[in-house]
Backbone:
């Protein structure tokens, strides 16, 4: 049986069967906070530095107190060690959760001590392995803003991993209700953006392409690790606008994220994305590269 591990960054290991969050925590009543999701494998939190960097950037964009990175690292390391001991080194899903704390906090919601700061590790769901092995059918859904919107509207927190993921979960339910496994969002002017929990990567020969962060997407830690290793291996990596036609013309298309790492898109709306023999070899090579990039980062 899986034993969930929970650490409070201020107070150390906690019993996950006991309540930890107050009913008036701003994470609960407003979704006013940030989070990260990481893969735990072989006794380490994969790609940790990129996650901590994005966490700090997200905190700054939300006017949260700067996270005490050393304290977060200590909690992460403690949680990983406890997880490995309790769960025979199985893969784990780690979440970092950081909110302003209680609405009624006496010190005021901006005090660093008042912040809610949790590290949790739990089992990886079966969906991740399924998506990795079998691929995903995706539908294209309009996200409702054009590619220049994020830069003009910083208050929208586009590109920040806030705790307000309700719309993303609703998009996934909408996709499931229509026979799809996942979603690729389009901007209102027709550009490919991202998945509700993943970054889009198109592979053609030894070239990788992904949409620019400025178009209104989260800067993915997985795609960053993949691009770093791919470049070292001589692949061409481009960050440039993509259209749905670019995806249909690619050898293979992938949804990349920290825990699943890379799931091949097998269908976009009504179009199956079949692999010929060359594309299948390229896809296998990309999948291996992506796994290695994440578990060594
Ligand atoms: N885009 C969104 C909206 C996400 O929620 C995620 C991850 O959950 C990603 C992209 C991929 O980010 P990462 O590779 O850091 O997991």
Residues:
């Amino acid at each position: 049986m899986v034993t969930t591990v929970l650490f409070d960054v201020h107070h150390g290991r906690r019993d996950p069967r006991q309540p930890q969050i107050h009913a008036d925590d701003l994470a609960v009543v407003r979704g006013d906070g940030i989070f990260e999701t990481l893969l735990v494998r072989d006794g380490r939190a994969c790609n940790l530095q990129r996650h901590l960097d994005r966490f700090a950037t997200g905190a700054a964009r939300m006017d949260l107190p700067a996270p005490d990175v050393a304290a977060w690292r200590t909690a992460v390391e403690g949680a990983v060690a406890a997880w490995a001991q309790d769960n025979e080194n199985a893969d784990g899903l780690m979440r970092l959760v950081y909110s302003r704390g209680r609405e009624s906090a006496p010190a005021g919601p901006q005090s660093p001590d008042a912040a809610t700061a949790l590290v949790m590790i739990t089992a990886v769901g079966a969906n991740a392995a399924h998506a990795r092995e079998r691929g995903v059918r995706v539908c294209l859904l309009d996200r409702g803003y054009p590619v220049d919107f994020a830069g003009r509207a910083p208050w929208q927190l586009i590109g920040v991993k806030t705790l307000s993921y309700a719309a993303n979960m609703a998009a996934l339910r909408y996709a499931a209700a229509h026979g799809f496994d996942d979603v690729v969002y389009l901007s209102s002017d027709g550009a490919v953006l991202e998945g509700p929990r993943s970054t889009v990567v198109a592979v053609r020969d030894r070239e990788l392409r992904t949409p620019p962060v400025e178009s209104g997407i989260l800067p993915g830690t997985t795609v960053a690790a993949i691009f770093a290793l791919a470049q070292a291996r001589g692949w061409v990596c481009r960050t440039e606008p993509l259209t749905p036609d670019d995806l249909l013309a690619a050898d293979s298309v992938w949804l990349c994220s920290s825990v699943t790492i890379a799931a091949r898109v097998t269908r976009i709306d009504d179009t199956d994305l079949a692999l010929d023999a060359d594309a299948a070899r390229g896809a296998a090579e990309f999948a291996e590269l992506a796994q290695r990039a994440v578990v060594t980062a």
Notes: The pocket of pyridoxal-5'-phosphate is lined by residues 37, 194, 196-199, 218, 220-222, 256-258 (CB under 6 Å). The first strand starts at residue 5 and ends at 8. The chain has a mean pLDDT of 95.
